[in-house]
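[recover] target loaded
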């Protein structure tokens, strides 16, 4: 995919006829940031000038991996038990699965779900969770200090995924995380064999004996979770982890060369990331990073996800450094970033040991919209992203005994997953900006021109439909904006509430989506503290220039081949 598009992308694509500017001229190629790799460029203007947003459809930049709308389900709090699996509840089916949760998650069209942790994985032994339920042991659980009954395990998760996938063209993909805490390599190999084995071998036969004749074909496997963290059972140094991950990856690829292995990174901008990438790059199909953001004031809260943008850029540079230093042949596919835990979360407000049930405000919803703008803008690098988590635990979706509550953060996720697909399109924003304190503090220095009041991303899908997201982070000011290159029939989706503290609770929804139409004429007013998604058609289908997968490492020969 990426490389030919990088070379052939926006330079040679014709301008789409009905996207011509009507009020302002599209900057000439000379005036544009020349050969800019930036997805969105920004010029800070005085506060009393009229902001503008130029959508440059000729700058079709990189494919948005659908996996950026991934989910995450950990054995933590009420995510599994009481979230997706709740056998005593009248809303559950005969398998014990909450049908209201299934139907809500189907709306999100989640492509992939990470399981079963998270920190939980560091002491989890998968064999405790398969076979007849009455024989499964209850164990002390050391990440969240609970008891794991093992009534829900590998086979139940795969069955539940099958139910979730009903009616979909492609199944919701599983993404499993391996226990690199108290777990052994033998145990990891056995789990892969149990899930994917097709031969007459012990663990493949155990799966068959447990009633699952066909292999699960699980492609995505993570080499541990946050093993750098002091809270982790069997915390490791980068050196120790690198050596272990390298050997595990080799063995796992010998067992099943089709696996996509995800290396355990940290934040993307740490020396841990640098060290483990340099040691393991040839086995790292993806590099995982985790960031949770929050801020005490609305503006530090809503701008905090911009730190993740810098983290992605930094991790991408570290990947390039590792490839250069390890002489990885240019035709080897790029190691992508797997942002497999992201969200708004203040653990002092919603501690993990207490189930991490956050009550999300409109400010958080706008923060989630900025997070998703970041993933769309950085689609060149991001191969997967998983909101942490999908039900009850720091989640947009909460269960009560009587049904589900869609928190304020649900709505941006839904709109992005529904519409921000295809390719990232280049945008130039001219606006005023927030220049105050940030969370984390270093972000303020990185932003240079400040954080634009209007946080923007744009995409085009295969049918040539443009979707433009504009988050007005300003708490008090509406902005009338010159929009360049929009169509004449524009669908509008707006998320807002009475103020940035608005929340959704059982029986009262203060934050939701309003739908309207716009004729594309005149300026568009982006209301204070809102997210707006505008959609219009260019009436021109996209023809993609596709590149092959490149060469892969042949683990047996320790060489690269097609
Ligand atoms: O998602 C909650 C927890 O946050 C995960 O278990 C862990 O990986 C992270 O620290």
């Amino acid at each position: 995919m990426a490389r030919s598009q990088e070379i052939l992308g926006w330079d040679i694509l014709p301008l789409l006829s009905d996207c011509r500017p009507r009020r302002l001229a599209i900057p000439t190629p000379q005036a544009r940031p020349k050969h800019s790799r930036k997805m969105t460029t920004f010029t800070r203007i005085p506060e009393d000038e009229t902001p503008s947003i130029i959508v440059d459809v000729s700058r079709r930049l990189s494919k948005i991996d659908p996996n950026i709308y991934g989910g995450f389900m950990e054995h933590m709090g009420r995510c599994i038990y009481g979230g997706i699996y709740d056998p005593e509840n009248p809303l559950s089916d005969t398998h014990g699965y909450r049908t209201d949760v299934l139907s809500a998650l189907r709306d999100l069209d989640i492509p992939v779900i990470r399981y079963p942790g998270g920190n939980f994985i560091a002491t989890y032994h998968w064999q405790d969770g398969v076979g007849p339920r009455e024989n499964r042991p209850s164990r002390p659980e050391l990440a969240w200090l609970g008891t794991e009954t093992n009534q829900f395990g590998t086979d139940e998760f795969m069955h539940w995924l099958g139910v979730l996938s009903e009616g979909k063209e492609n199944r919701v993909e599983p993404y499993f995380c391996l226990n690199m805490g108290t777990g052994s390599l033998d145990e990891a190999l056995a789990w892969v064999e149990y899930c994917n084995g097709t031969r007459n071998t012990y663990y493949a036969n155990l799966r068959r004996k447990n009633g699952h004749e066909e292999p699960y074909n699980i492609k995505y496997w993570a080499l541990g979770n946050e093993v750098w963290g002091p809270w982790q059972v069997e915390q490791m140094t980068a050196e120790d982890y690198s050596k272990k991950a390298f050997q595990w990856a080799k063995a796992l690829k010998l067992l099943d060369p089709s696996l996509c292995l995800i290396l355990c990174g940290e934040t993307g901008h740490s020396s841990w990331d640098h060290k483990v990438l340099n040691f393991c790059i040839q086995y790292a199909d993806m590099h995982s990073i985790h960031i949770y953001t929050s801020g005490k004031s609305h503006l530090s809260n809503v701008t905090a996800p911009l730190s993740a943008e810098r983290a992605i850029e930094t991790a991408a540079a570290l990947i390039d450094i590792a490839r250069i230093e390890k002489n990885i042949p240019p035709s080897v596919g790029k190691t992508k970033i797997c942002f497999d835990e992201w969200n708004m979360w203040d653990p002092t407000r919603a501690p993990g040991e207490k189930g991490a049930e956050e009550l999300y405000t409109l400010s958080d919803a706008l923060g989630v919209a900025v997070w998703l703008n970041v993933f769309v803008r950085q689609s060149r690098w991001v191969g997967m992203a998983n909101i942490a988590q999908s039900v009850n635990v720091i989640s947009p979706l909460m269960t009560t005994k009587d049904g589900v509550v869609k928190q304020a953060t649900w709505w941006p996720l839904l709109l992005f997953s529904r519409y921000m697909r295809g390719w990232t399109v280049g945008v130039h924003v001219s606006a005023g900006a927030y220049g105050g304190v940030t969370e984390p503090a270093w972000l303020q220095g990185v932003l240079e021109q400040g954080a634009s009041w209007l946080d923007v991303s744009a995409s085009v899908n295969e049918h040539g439909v443009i979707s433009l997201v504009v988050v007005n982070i300003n708490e008090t000011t509406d902005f009338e904006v010159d929009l360049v290159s929009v169509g004449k029939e524009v669908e509008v989706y707006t998320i807002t509430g009475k103020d940035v503290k608005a929340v959704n609770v059982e029986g009262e929804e203060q934050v939701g989506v309003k739908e309207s139409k716009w004729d594309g004429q005149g300026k568009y007013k982006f209301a204070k503290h809102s997210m707006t998604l505008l959609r219009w058609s260019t009436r021109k289908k996209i023809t993609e220039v596709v590149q092959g997968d490149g060469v892969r490492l042949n683990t047996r020969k320790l060489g690269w081949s097609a």
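[recover] notes: Residues 306-325 form the longest helix (20 residues).
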